[in-house]
Every structure is written in C-alpha cells, then in structure tokens.
Amino acid sequence: MTQRRRLRCLLVPIALVCLVATARADVKLATIFGDSMVLQRELPVPVWGWADPGEAVSVTFGSQTQQVEADAEGHWQVKLDALEANAEGQTLTVKGTNTITVNDVLVGEVWICSGQSNMEWPLRVSLNPDEEVAAADHPQIRLFNVPGHLTSPVAKETCPGTWQVCQPATAKDFSAVGYFFGRQLHQDLKVPIGLVGSNWGGTRIEPWTSPAGFRGVPELKQIADQVDAYTAETKVSGGSPSAIYNAMVHPLAPFAMRGAIWYQGESNGNEGESYYHKTKALVQGWRELFNPELAFYWVQLADFRAPNDDPAGGDGWAKLREAQRKSLGIKHTGMAVIIDIGQADDIHPRNKQDVGWRLAQWALHQTYGKQDVVPSGPLYKSHKVEGNSIRLAFANTGGGLIVGKKEGLAPTQEVADGKLARFAIAGEDKKWHWADAMIDGESVVVKSSDVAHPVAVRYDYSTNPAGANLYNKEGIPASPFRTDDW
Fold first, then answer.
1. CA 29, CA 101: separation in Å to the nearest integer?
2. Which of 25, 47, 273, 465: disulfide with 97, CB 3.0–4.6 Å?
3. Is residue 180 included in any domain, yes or no?
C-alpha cells in the first residue's frame, strides 16, 4: 500500500467520526416550537430540546436570556419568566454549538383542541363553509395540528406538526370547533391566540389518557395496571389505553397552555358512571403534564337518532351525558350543552359555530374572569318536594329562564306563552310519567296528575329528546339531568 493510500484510509474513519460528532452536537428544539407560533402569556414558559450531554445552551426571547447545560441523556430545558401579550412578531433564539432562530413569535393565549371526529371535523365542511373559510383571515390566530393518526406503547419525545398563520388556506382543514372557539377568544380578549389540534375520529377516551391519569383514579386500577405493563415492544392500536396520548399529546409537553377543549364521547356512548371516572383521569393527567391549573371544557353529546317517547328515557347516550354533567364537579371545568343543534340522522352535526361559541363562554367567564358573561345554559342544582310537585333550582339562569326555540345559526328565540317539554316525574314506585312543567322565577315547578307523591324528576334523559326547550335568556339550553340514581 502506498503512503498516500495508507493516509487516506486513516483519514476517512476520522472524518466520519467528526461528521457524527458534529451531527450529534447540534442543539435541537421540540417540535412544538416553530416559526409563527404563539407562546402563553402570564405563565412561566418552558423551552426544551436536545443536545450533547453537558452542552451549554442559551435561550433568548425579548430581553430575557436563560442558560442551562444538557443533562447526561442530552435533554435540556429552561423556563422563560412570564411574558406579556404581544401581537408583534419576535424572535426566539436558541444557541448551543449551533444557533436556531424561530421567527414571528407572538405572545397570547394557547389552547389544545382535542377529541374524536367532531373535534377533528374541518371548517370547510361546517355550516356556511364557503363564507366561513373566506372570512378565516386572522393573522394573530396561529394553528398547530398534529397530523396523522399515531400510537405508541411508550411516551414519545417528538411528533410531527408545524405552526401556520390562520388564513383561508390553512384554516379550512383545521378543527371547526377549535377555530370558532379561538376566533371568539381573539375577538373578546384582543390578544393573539394559539390553537394546538390533536384529534382522531372514532376514538375512545382511554387512548387519550396518560398512565398517571389512570393511576390517580382508584376505580381505574385495572386500566392503570394494563398501561404500566407496556414495554416498547407492546403492540398497541388506536383503541389501546394511553396509546394515542403517548404519540400525539405527550410530545407536546410541557408546552405552556392555558386550557383544553375536548369533544369526545360518542365512542364511549354505552357508558355511564365509568365515563365520569375516565374524564377525571383525563383531566388530572393532562394537568400534571401541561399546567396544574389547566382549564378544561368539554362538549356534551348532541341529540342523535330517533326520539324516544318513553318518559323513563335512559336510552342511547343519556347515561353518558349524565356522566359528563357530573364531571362538572372537577375543579375549573365546564361543559357546552348542544342538545338543541344535533342532527338525528348524522353523528356529525354541521353547526360547529354554536359549539365553539358556547365553549368560549365558559372560558371567558371562568378562565378570564368576565363575570358579565353567562357561561352556560341552566344547570340543575337542587330540588325540593312541595306537596304534589317538585321545585327545581338551577345555576346559570342568566337573565332568566325561558321557553326557547333554536333554528340553525339564528339566535335562540323566546316562545311567548310556550310550554316546557321533556320533563318526567316519578313517585316511590319508580314509574315515570310525562309531567307538566312551569317556569316560576328562577326555578321550574314540575307535577303530574298521575303522581300524587313525587320523589324524582328527569329532563331530556334520552338520546334524542326532541322538543326540549328550557333555555336562559342568553339563548343557551339547559343540560339534560336526572335527580334520581336508579
């Protein structure tokens, strides 16, 4: 071998080693950070990624610079001090052995929008799609969507996705509910809005729930044990507990977010009390991940399928809606009631505008402290037997209770001299009868000539309670409820 060939053989592996070392040395940012993003205001903001173990990393945003060294496994994270809202694009700079520049970064309110197909349902096929898409030009609203349907038996560190400025070409394929929710917040708060979409049609709640969430609810120990037994080789699907969470939610953490909106339940539609426990696990797990005070607002399932004229109800999604209502006992949660805007023959009602608006009312009132905003329609609070009748008390009566009628996107109209429908009453024999119901100030009085000594009331307690018409004057319907636990 000539001296030149010998030298070349020695230099090639050295060069390869140098190339590998250089590639490993590049500091990297988590996927959720990118051009045209929104950072959460008024909260510490984690910024994180990967580098060589021990590599010095600095993060600069505005007047702040935070420094850290990557740990033994190459992970690094800093926390920016709480930021003020800013609609002017700024630069986020990350320096290690290389430099990453993230441009056009706004500061405002960030929400994750998640669930199954009714949350995934895009703007381009909602009501009035052409007009809505054409009007979706909001430079201060930014959209991030986790594409594809991904699963993993163990928590992933990365997932795909990019930020986009909200305009017709980008908004048309984004969640319609998420968009209408964000548009309302932007209009009322007048700050930038970041919406993070992570959805998968036809999925149950269990795949979206973290292992920690399951562990925190004793009633779900069996599922917790199942998830804790997963290894990297465990085969999972879109129906496996925690499998979607691991691939489509965990990689987003610990991104600073104000809250979550959630539209799911159809695939768990045969459940009752168990869905309440699963909701608690979902909320607690996500709060542990993103923000201990994460606001969480969900959509109660819409009316669906043929109406049921049995006063006892209890068919279809009735029990699941009751579990969703019960879940309001979880701190800082809310529920958009849409029992009046579903479609009996379509599990995907097209009116997503009212869904987004009703979710936004919860956020504006409860998260952002706008006390003049009524967050929902009437919610059952208590009842009292008065002779042969039962008096029902409600929260969120707003300007007063009314008999209302909702058609399409038009505002709810009060029906003068209208009669309340879909109330049922029972005595100690537990036999249900349709009841006469009358608004009396802030309460509703229910009775029936067939029940001399009533003990319980049900309202809208069926999968499609056609004709339900109790609203408040703000035009939001009352939630279905029952006072019994039979």
1. 10
2. 25
3. yes
Same domain, residue pair 289 and 361: yes
Q: How far, in Å, CA of 319 to CA of 453, rounded?
A: 25
Per-residue pLDDT reduced to its tens digit, 84-115: 999 999 999 999 999 999 999 999 999 999 99
DSSP tag of 363: I
pLDDT of 21 above 90: no
223 and 332: one domain?
Answer: yes
Residue-averaged pLDDT of the chain: 95
Q: Assess whether 332 and 212 both reside in one domain.
A: yes
Domain count within the chain: 3
Closest CA to 265 of 302, 291, 308, 290: 302
For residue 337, being part of any structural domain is answered with yes
176 with 301, same domain: the answer is yes
**For residue 253, which of 486, 75, 433 has the smallest C-alpha distance?**
75
Nearest Cα neighbor of 166 from 189, 196, 126 is 196
Same domain, 341 and 417: no
Tell whether the model's pLDDT for residue 206 goes beyond 80. yes
Of the chain, the percentage scoring pLDDT greater than 70 comes to 95
Contact 62, 167 (CB under 8 A): no
Q: What is the pLDDT of residue 24?
A: 53
Dihedrals phi, psi of 189, to nearest 5 degrees = -90, -25
pLDDT above 70: residue 213: yes
Q: Is the pTM of this model over 0.70?
A: yes
The answer on pLDDT for 472 being more than 60 is: yes
Which residues, other chains included, contact 374 with Cβ-Cβ below 8 Å and sequence gap of 6+?
A: 361, 365, 396, 398, 399, 472, 474, 476
Same domain, 268 and 336: yes
Q: Name the DSSP letter for residue 111.
A: E
Domain boundary (61, 85, 105) is at 105
DSSP letter, residue 81 = P
